[in-house]
Amino acid sequence: MNVIEINNLTKMYGKARGIENVSFNVEQGEIFGFIGPNGAGKSTTIRTLLSLIYPTSGSAKIFGKDCIEFGPEIKKEIGYLPSEVFYYDNMKVKDLLKYSASFYGKDCSKRIKELAEIMQLDLNKKIDDLSLGNKKKVGIVQGLLHEPKLIILDEPTSGLDPLMQQKFFELLEEENRKGATILFSSHILTEVQRLCNRVAIIKDGKIITVEKISTLQENNYKKFKLLTSVTVDKEYFDMNGVSNLVLENNTVSFLFKGNVNPVMKKLADIEIQNIWVEEPDLEEIFMHYYEKEE
Which segments of the chain does DSSP mark as H helices, in order? Predict the structure, then answer.
């Protein structure tokens, strides 16, 4: 079953592009990554999905219900963390969270305490006195306090230190184990690599591909790096499947996709001092997708 269904979602700001014909589904119980550089259209897609802004055309459903028609009803079961959080500066953290909880009509006080403990958030502080990272923690607690069935996170780790990011990821994995579906937008690929089952890659407002993380990483690509005894011409590696080719002095590196036998035969004909063959990280694969598009 799909928890999110997005069909040809388009949002134009006058003549300026927002997003164009964005389509993808997120299945129940999935942690789904939504990746692309800043300004690619991730936040616009999420805000349109949440009917915070209205689409120019296309549609979106959450829990099988149209996002605009059933907006208020759907939102009771969603936890949302925007990329930037703004609050009433004068309130104490605990009062703000209590106020947030009142919208869901259930007692969330125990859960607020648990989450604040995990995220090391002082509930007695005033919002105004918090650092950027601590304001982000307030947003995280606010998004999770009502134990939502769907968690939507837009660039959630900005402002969190590495230790907190680790705790936050563990918290998300725990929520997912309990049955929550998660949509996670980021431009940091290692985050997505760690958490997600599948990803949609967006660039310039359009979806380039929707893939399983395992498919992006396995079989498809190998990362070659060689130290050669003699200088090799660039043309030598001019063959199908080679991309991201870099030659520096006697070091050659490239990504290779496809059957490795032809490339191994080529390598056998040159004097090699050393060779490394690795799985590339998503960053490199990602750049390859972008170049391919261009």
Answer: 42-49, 71-75, 93-102, 109-118, 132-144, 162-177, 189-195, 213-217, 261-268, 282-293
Residue spans per domain, the chain:
2-216, 219-278
Distance of CA 289 to the CA centre of its chain: 16
Q: CA dihedral in degrees (146, 152, 154, 159; nearest 10)?
A: 30
CATH class, domain 219-278, is alpha beta
Which residues neighbour 247 within 8 Å (Cβ) at sequence distance 6 or greater?
232, 234
pLDDT in tens, 173-207: 999 999 999 999 998 877 888 899 999 999 889 99
Give the whole-angstrom CA distance, residue 109 versus residue 141.
Answer: 11
Convert the pLDDT of each residue in 272-282 to its tens digit. 999 999 877 76
Domain range 2-216, CATH class: alpha beta
